[in-house]
Automatic annotation (TrEMBL):
Keywords: Carboxypeptidase, Cytoplasm, Hydrolase, Metal-binding, Metalloprotease, Mitochondrion, Nucleus, Protease, Zinc. It comes from Scleropages formosus. It catalyses: (L-glutamyl)(n+1)-gamma-L-glutamyl-L-glutamyl-[protein] + H2O = (L-glutamyl)(n)-gamma-L-glutamyl-L-glutamyl-[protein] + L-glutamate; C-terminal L-alpha-aminoacyl-L-glutamyl-L-glutamyl-[tubulin] + H2O = C-terminal L-alpha-aminoacyl-L-glutamyl-[tubulin] + L-glutamate. Residues 365-391, 1157-1193 have a biased composition (Acidic residues). Its EC number is 3.4.17.24. This is Cytosolic carboxypeptidase 1. SUPFAM superfamilies: ARM repeat, Zn-dependent exopeptidases. The active site is at E1083. Belongs to the peptidase M14 family. Residues 830-1119 form the Peptidase M14 domain.
Length: 1202
């Protein structure tokens, strides 16, 4: 080692005493004279005394620029005198004992680890080795090791492992030396290779000689021993060795002993360390088996329940819970197959993809479980699950999405690491960027500039596209002979389709509201036309609450297609099957049935129960539904009260998991009674009069099976999308037969996502028929003790996309019913059926005034035979003059679509708000209609909506992944919607704006995804010339306007990055192939908002419809900003660019960086709460701009203030 020359830090007095002593020691290092040993002892003892008595001495030695540490290490390396070595080791121990990791880091950086390990080797060769020297050496190594990342490798290469093990074996009763040896062994064991080597040398067995029953003595030694053992047991080989030597029962017995005797909870750290050893053993299959055979479930369950009342024991409860969940035997999902109960035969099978694999699968294959559900030895509690939903399948994609606050680089730093930009973007942006600008390493981000640059690509011949000319009559209409003062409609109303099957209309009746004009209530049929709707208010004849105290019945409406006459309805009980009497046509049909319906006409102008039934008759479903859900029939009036995001009760998830574990410990308490099963085709409802009754056989319904596990607890299984074997998220079902005041727990047990907003305050929706008839027809957020966690039901590799060992997740909630004999409905989000859409569209026709141009077309027929509506809305020209007609024909197009994913019902509610605003008589709506022509496809996936799918159409595919190459046979709605856009492109009428309405299941607020070359490349390190990145930043204008108008909209959540995994979505294809620069996906939360006016509130239909209206107002402002008068002042667009640059370059502390999908953690541990990330959200800027001016450009503010 080169001899260092003594230097001092600037500001340290050169005449410092310790520095003088170090200088003398440095001189001795260069003189190899035997007589120097005494001098060395004297100098080092003085230095030790100064360090022990003066803190400033320690600072002088370890200060930056000082070579004191090098001199001391050089002396340690060169001297052979035992006392001098001991003095120097004491000096080093004093230095690293105080001052934290920085001083240890100085020692490591100066090569101290290698010198200490070499000294250990040298000392071990002497016999007997000096006990004091070994004590000091291991004491300092125990402190240095955790700070040296290569400590384990260095120790193994130098042969230090065996020396420490030998010393440990020889000093099992020497507690003074035993402790530092164990501490060093713990550091050795952190290296996996070392752990295996130490296991082969018998260290596991050696440690069990130290571990013993409860004792107040030597607790420090026991704690370090257990920590060392836990580190060794991370090795599968060591875990198997522990199982073979029956150490699992030993650990459980030791844990029980400490639990019994540590009544004052002073040794929780030891009890937790024992659990840590058990947890690592149970990471392997043999360990889990041994744990179960040793009655570990009962032991940990009983000890944990005794700890529940003490908050400080939560670490023990959480670790015990994790072990029990991991060891809980994997159960088979109680269904015959994970495929949908319903089957639809496709016209042809795709050549590849999940649908093709599904059809190629042999019919006798058991797709529910694999041959071995427990054949992996992976660490189950730390498995890396990924998002199943295809729109969010690549979690790295979410990390790369940056918002207006510059959070993309922040999220990248937190989740994927970060690097500095190598490309100089200053010439591109026109302003200098900070040198520390970050970009994300994300393989999903598109880096091919040729693919990023939009290119109009029709992909279909022009002759083929002419078929869409009929959908654009506004381009050729001259309005000659049209009376502009007339309110006569220029389109013929749609003809109502005939009934295709019997329809069951819900009626909840007592003798007073539902009566017969002649005679008593019998099986006599009623004429269809004789039923009238009674719309009494809450105070009317049927408004009293006792109306539902009697039996609930339904009316079956059936058309007699044999003789062309209307067949009368049959009154039947809920408790029995509805049967049709062939002779019923001979009965008199003069009776009058009264169906009690709350009077909501003033509040719901677009809802009409009679019209809804007519719409249902023309809706075709795969299961051929014959029933109508009460909520869809009565309608929904948004509540006037606020529904706050549910505050999570501490420990609720733990309590639910313990209840699940009780099923195994006390199996005799479990009923396991099937009460509803769609796999039983003839009679899915199993009614014994003692259980709840379930039903989902109505439009958009989804519940496959209900199993009663306890008196007031039910496991629910959702149906997968048709022609698919997954996508379990949307649910909509009916419950009846409940007891008032009893708390019912419902568990949806086959969820697939790794986390959910149900963990962050979202509640399920409930609709009470009793409430509806008493005058409050509404969906309300309900449920307590809501949580979402991994369960013990195994997913097969077929269900998990080829991955083995995956589990399903449980979403659980508790409800207490308020009314006797009520009928309640539960839904994932506010239902909006296809029949509801048809009803709303027909009611919109009645809102048309002579100033509104409204046209309804059928774009195409779906796979299931349902029509896909297409709307055209604009303003009628004021006259038939050439100027007016020219202005009419040259209005820019705005193209809107929604509901491509059936489970995202909030998209339909936003679309409803948009349509109502466009059809309203307000001056702003008229101005908007005069500015644009709106082409709207309000429901891209009618079949999926009708049949209760969550994400797919009847083809079993996500339609929002088919925009690149849609099939006219399998994806007709996408094929023809894209054809409309291509036709507009072919006639040089590319829409100004395209927006696809969606819902988001894992984020709060409303936000947009757009497309930008610059912002995409900002996330990469791709070199690009300025000429390749010429881009109008006005794509940010519409989201920015929305952020100032709509209280639910969050600009910070918006992203304009183009990912490879999204290249076949509507947003990217319309931007890239059609050339629409302002091409967006607008995502609405399913949960609520965490900013703005609605912060802390769950979102409702009122807020969603408001968002649809605000989108229209934003388009009007966009028109004003882009008009020639406004366009002369380009300061607005300059502001957009400046905002973009400032936000993009903003870099904050890395501790505030979070992933897009992160939520604030709860006090429960992360491993315990569905493995969600636990990083906190960045604190909002305390200096918020007023809502009405936030996001406005300087020019807009000037106009407003003037």
């Amino acid at each position: 080692m080169n001899k260092p020359k003594m230097t001092t830090e600037k500001g340290v007095p050169s005449n410092s005493r310790v520095l003088m002593l170090l200088g003398q020691l440095e001189k001795l290092n260069g003189e190899a004279v035997l007589s120097d040993a005494e001098v060395s002892r004297h100098i080092t003892s003085k230095i030790l005394h100064l360090i022990q008595t003066q803190e400033k001495t320690r600072k002088e030695i370890t200060a930056k620029g000082s070579s004191g540490m090098e001199v001391i290490l050089a002396s340690l390396e060169s001297t052979r005198d035992l006392q001098t070595i001991l003095n120097i080791l004491c000096i080093l121990n004093e230095l690293v004992s105080v001052g934290g990791g920085r001083r240890v880091g100085v020692l490591v950086s100066k090569g101290g680890t290698a010198i200490l390990l070499q000294l250990l080797i040298t000392t071990s060769k002497e016999w007997p080795p000096s006990e004091e020297l070994m004590l000091q050496l291991h004491t300092i190594l125990a402190k240095v090791g955790p700070k040296d990342r290569k400590f384990g490798i260095k120790a193994r290469i130098n042969g230090a492992l065996n020396i420490t093990v030998s010393l440990l074996k020889q000093n099992l009763q020497n507690h003074k030396l035993l402790l530092p040896c164990l501490q060093v062994l713990r550091v050795y064991s952190a290296n996996s290779v070392n752990a295996v080597s130490l296991g082969k040398n018998g260290v596991v067995e050696l440690l069990f000689k130290i571990i013993g029953p409860y004792s107040k003595k030597n607790t420090s030694i026991l704690k370090v021993t257990l920590d060392t053992l836990a580190a060794l047991l991370k090795s599968k080989a060591n875990a198997r060795r522990a199982v073979d030597r029956t150490y699992v029962p030993t650990l459980l017995a030791v844990y029980q002993d400490w639990h019994r005797n540590d009544t004052r909870h002073r040794h929780v750290h030891i009890r937790k360390a024992i659990l840590g050893c058990i947890r690592n053993i149970t990471n392997i299959k043999l360990g889990r088996k041994a744990f179960l055979e040793a009655d570990g479930m009962r032991i940990l369950y009983s000890t944990s329940t005794e700890c529940l009342s003490v908050r400080t024991l939560d670490p023990l409860i959480n670790t015990s819970s994790l072990i029990m969940r991991k060891c809980f035997p994997k159960n088979r999902l109680p269904v015959p197959t994970i495929r949908s109960v319903f089957h639809y035969q496709l016209p042809h099978i795709p050549a590849e993809g999940p649908v093709a694999q599904l059809y190629r699968q042999p019919p006798d294959v058991d797709d529910v479980v694999d041959e071995s559900d427990d054949n992996d030895d992976t660490e189950a509690d730390t498995e890396n699950d990924t998002e199943n939903e295809e729109d969010e399948k690549n979690h790295k994609t979410q990390v790369a999405r940056g918002g207006a606050s510059g959070s993309a680089s922040a999220r990248c730093a937190a989740g994927l690491g970060f690097e500095y930009l190598a490309t100089d973007w200053s010439p591109v942006l026109g302003v200098p960027l900070p040198p520390a600008t970050l970009y994300c390493r994300n393989d999903d981000i598109e880096t091919d500039i040729s693919k990023l640059r939009p290119k109009e690509n029709l992909t279909r011949p022009l002759e083929d596209l002419k078929m869409y000319e009929c959908f654009f009559p506004e381009l050729s209409e001259n309005f000659q002979g049209y009376s502009f003062d007339s309110s006569k409609s220029c389109q013929t109303p749609a003809v109502l389709p005939k009934s295709l099957a019997p329809i069951v209309v819900p009626t909840a009746h007592a003798p007073s509201p539902l009566s017969l004009a002649q005679g008593e209530l019998t099986d006599l049929p009623l004429d269809l036309d004789s039923i009238c709707i009674s719309k009494d208010g809450p105070g009317g004849a049927g408004g009293a609450g006792e109306g539902l105290a009697q039996e609930l019945e339904r009316v079956a409406l059936e058309e007699d297609t044999l003789n062309g006459q209307s067949q009368s309805p049959v009154v039947g009980s809920l408790q029995g099957e509805l049967e049709h009497d062939d002779d019923c046509s001979s009965h008199s049909s003069g009776e009058l049935g009264v169906l009690e319906v709350p009077d909501t006409a003033a509040l719901l102008p677009l809802h009409d129960p009679e019209l809804y039934i007519d719409m249902v008759k023309g809706t075709k479903s795969v299961p051929q539904y014959t029933e109508v859900a009460y909520p869809d029939y009565f309608g929904h009036v948004a509540p006037t009260f606020r529904e706050h995001i549910l505050e999570r009760v501490y420990g609720v998830q733990r309590a639910k998991i313990f209840q699940d574990i009780e099923r195994m410990i006390h199996p005799n308490d479990i009923l396991d009674k099937v009460v509803y099963d769609l796999d039983l085709k003839r009679s899915p409802v199993i009614d014994d009069g003692e259980s709840l009754k379930f039903n989902s056989q109505f439009e958009s319904g989804n519940l496959r099976k209900a199993v009663q596990v306890r008196k007031f607890e039910y496991d629910l299984i959702l149906n997968s999308d048709i022609n698919s074997n997954h996508y379990h998220q949307w649910f909509y079902f009916e419950v009846s037969g409940m007891r008032v005041g009893s708390s019912y727990r419902f568990n949806i047990i086959n969820c697939e996502k790794v986390n959910s907003q149900f963990n962050y305050g979202m509640q399920v929706l409930m609709y009470s028929v009793q409430e509806a008839i008493s005058g409050h027809p509404r969906w309300v957020r309900t449920g307590t003790e809501i949580c979402y966690y991994k369960n013990h039901f195994s997913r097969s590799s077929i269900a998990a996309g080829g991955q083995k060992g995956k589990s399903y997740y449980t979403m659980t909630f508790t409800v207490t019913f308020q009314y006797r004999d009520d009928v309640c409905y539960f839904a994932y989000h506010y239902p909006y059926t296809y029949s509801t859409l048809k009803m709303h569209l027909q009611k919109l026709e009645a809102l048309r005034t002579p100033q509104i141009y409204l046209r309804q077309d059928v774009l195409c027929e779906t796979l299931g035979g349902n029509s896909c509506p297409l709307l055209t809305i604009t303003a009628m020209p004021q006259s038939s003059s050439n100027d007016q007609i020219c202005q009419f024909k040259n209005r820019p197009y705005v193209f809107l679509t929604a509901r491509v994913h059936p489970g995202e019902t909030n998209a339909s509610w936003v679309m409803k708000g948009t349509l109502e605003f466009l059809m309203s008589p307000s001056p702003m709506a008229q101005s908007l209609r005069e500015s644009y022509v709106f082409k709207i496809v309000p429901m891209l996936n009618p079949d999926g909506v009708i049949n209760g799918n969550h994400r797919c159409s009847l083809s079993g595919e996500d339609l929002n992944r088919q925009w690149q190459r849609p099939s006219p046979d399998l994806h007709p709605t996408i094929f023809h919607t894209k054809g409309l856009l291509q036709y507009l492109s072919s006639i040089q009428r590319v829409p100004l704006v395209y927006c696809d309405y969606h819902g988001h299941s894992r984020k709060k607020n409303v936000f947009m995804y757009g497309c930008s070359i610059k912002e995409t490349l900002w996330q990469t390190n791709v070199n690009a010339a300025a000429c390749d990145l010429q881009e109008d930043l006005s794509y940010r204008t519409l989201p920015k306007i929305l952020s100032q108008l709509a209280p639910a909209f969050s600009m910070a959540s918006c992203s304009f990055v183009v990912e490879k995994s999204k290249e076949s979505t509507a947003r990217v294809v319309v931007w890239r192939e059609i050339g629409v620069q302002k091409s967006y996906t607008m995502e609405s939360t399913l949960c609520g908002c965490d900013q703005g006016k609605y912060k802390g509130l769950q979102i409702g239909t009122r807020e969603l419809e408001e968002m649809g209206a605000q989108f229209c107002i934003a388009l009007l402002r966009l028109k004003r900003l882009s008009s020639p008068l406004e366009f002369r002042n380009s300061s607005h667009f300059l502001d957009v660019e400046n905002d973009l640059i400032e936000s993009r370059c903003k870099v904050t502390s890395s501790t505030t960086y979070v992933l897009d999908e992160d939520e604030p953690s709860f006090m429960e541990e992360v491993d315990y709460s569905a493995e969600s990330n636990d990083e906190p959200e960045p604190d909002p800027d305390p200096q918020e701009t007023p809502a009405d001016e936030d996001g406005l450009s300087d020019s807009e503010l000037a106009l407003r203030r003037s």
